[in-house]
From TrEMBL:
Taxonomic lineage from the root: Eukaryota, Metazoa, Chordata, Craniata, Vertebrata
Family: Belongs to the complex I LYR family.
Pfam families noted in UniProt: Complex1_LYR
Name of the protein this chain belongs to: LYR motif-containing protein 1 isoform X6
UniProt-listed CDD domains: Complex1_LYR_LYRM1 (cd20261)
Domain Complex 1 LYR protein as annotated: residue spans: 7-68
Native species: Equus przewalskii (Przewalski's horse)
Underlying gene: LYRM1
InterPro entries reported for this sequence: Complex1_LYR_dom, Complex1_LYR_LYRM1, LYRM1
């Protein structure tokens, strides 16, 4: 990992913890605020710990993009959780064939950048 990439990753990590410190739940209730803050801190620690040994620059860039997208979406929608996507089970049109495998592949390809690590963790 280059020095610039390391600084960018550490900056994102610090940014998440600063956001968690200042976070207020949209409902305005203290219990919700505490739960959401705790979720943000735990999720960040878990994902950064999981990805700390990455050496491939493309994978590192994907993780940085995912982190940035999740921060921006969280700030915009005022929710710390990843926004779910809703697709019907056979809702994507495959290039050829109608098999279940092609649907699963299309689902994986159509997954937004901010949800790339969500299924691996949950």
């Amino acid at each position: 990992m280059t020095t610039a990439t390391r600084q960018e990753v550490l900056g994102l990590y610090r940014r998440i913890f600063r956001l968690a410190r200042k976070w207020q739940a949209a409902s305005g209730q203290m219990e919700d605020t505490i739960k959401e803050k705790q979720y943000m801190v735990n999720e960040a620690r878990m994902l950064f710990q999981k990805n700390k040994n990455l050496t491939d620059t493309d994978l590192i860039k994907q993780c940085i993009d995912e982190c940035t997208a999740r921060i921006e979406i969280g700030l915009h929608y005022q929710i710390p959780y990843p926004r779910p996507i809703h697709l019907p089970p056979m809702g994507l049109i495959p290039l050829r064939g109608r098999g279940l495998r092609s649907q699963e592949k299309l689902r994986k390809l159509s997954k937004p950048v901010y949800l790339q690590s969500h299924d691996e963790v949950s």
